[in-house]
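Researcher: Here's the sequence for the chain we discussed earlier.
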Amino acid sequence: TIAQHLFTTQNIMSGVQIPEGKREEFQDLQNRFLRFRQQFAQVNAQIQINERDKRRHELTLADIEGLGSDRVVYSALGKIFIRRPMTELQDSEKAAVSKCGKDVDTLSGTKKQLEDKMKDVQ
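Model: Thanks. This is the structure I predict for it:
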């Protein structure tokens, strides 16, 4: 955890004399690493949210594709439900699946960049 990392770093610094210029550089690297780690955790959380949303949209799409095209369907709009054509609802769910997939891909690239930055700082 962050607290353990800071505690370990403080113990290292208390036992070792670091020149003032190097100490500032060390603290700067430490702060950058912690910032990258926080961003990494946020990106991971966003990836999980998007994957969950993508799965939900996939399940909804599978359910409505199993219905006949003559069925009456409704979609939620705030507190009300609006009647929509089946094809429009299917297109909407397909677009949502596609968007979530693209978001996961983008966030995975960001995650990789943050991993590389954290390796550089270490």
